Amino acid sequence: MKIAHVHAADLGGGAERSVISLHRALLAAGHESRVFVGERRTDEPGVFEIPYVRGVPGARRLARAIEHRLGWQDIYNPSFRALSERLADVDVVHFHSLWGSQGYADLAALPRITARAPGVLTLRDEWMLTGHCACSFHCQRWRSGCGACPDLAIPPAVTTDGTAFNWRRKKRFVGRSRLHIVAISEHLKSLAEASPILAQHPVSRIYNGIDLTCFLPLDVQQRNTARLDLGFGADEYVVIIAGQTVEGIRQTIASRHAIAALNALAPRLPALRVLAIGHSAERVGAAIDAPVRCLPFQTAPTAMARLFALADVCLVTSEAEAFGRIAAEAQACGTPVVALAVGGIPEVVVDGIGGIVVPPSSPNGLTDALHKLADDRIRRDLAAGGLAHVRRHFDQRRVADAYLGLYQQVAERGSQH
If you average pLDDT over residues 191-215, what whole number do you get? Predict the structure, then answer.
């Protein structure tokens, strides 16, 4: 089959790893896969930056000014609109995140693109359901049209409350498009099925895939060597934090739970050591009352896999997660997870099987769970359970097969259109 993927970028975080991992799996299975991105940041084969198209002179500047003044999002992008010409020869167009990369997408193009080739749209967050934000937290206004937004600063932020307009615009253009919606967790699927914006379209659940040839456990000697390279002893208790658990410090969310839990654990467990990974690792590390090794964001999956595998436990304290890729990758590397029970996390980390999932309302739950996993026997059992769970549900090859089955269904329906 010929599949074209559309996404904001080819390097960034979990969403980008998911897209590129799927692209590679499709190529390995003998299919023709191309990825069109708003920003090309790597030399990954088969990835192309969406070519710049000028459009009406001055219209881009005018659109940006209107967006800033009225709180509208991405109302005019001629480069994205021109994609319909480049995607005319494919069997299926697979849209991933349609926000980011400085407004690379334009939803007005969806009907024209999907008139030529049927579309699959994978939801990796809640942006397609709302009037501006990628995560609604506890707000329910997306169910009835947004407007009177309680928090305009949630990314992607807007300066003025144009959320009702954005919501109606999404509903109009999504409603005119040929799309099959995919959610990356049952949690997100339930939200999609309740969305008026997506009401006319079928919704399926396909989990994110993990490359198990990359994310895998180390043997004892490899693990000890990896720990020694970072200054950790074989008998020290290493807790790794990454993703939103670290980057959440920018919005004073997520990281606060990790910092509080680790600071409460430190007096109880002198062997505690923390490995913090990410752009904000130094800021988080400075607030932790235990020895911390800080490393920058890891662009190479193999490097991140090695770090997961050398740790004893992965701590995930996101306040919202559509899936929980950090938790899945850690388990794939044989590292059990302690996490808050939010969003898709309970699907990724089965409590008592691959780790310990703590209710957000339990203030001491994270600390107690981390202390419990200092027991080698308990940790070994959870590591084995988590690894089996990941192999059963998140193997990239299985995920690629699931998407191929969906592509075939969508292409069949498209040929009858």
Answer: 97
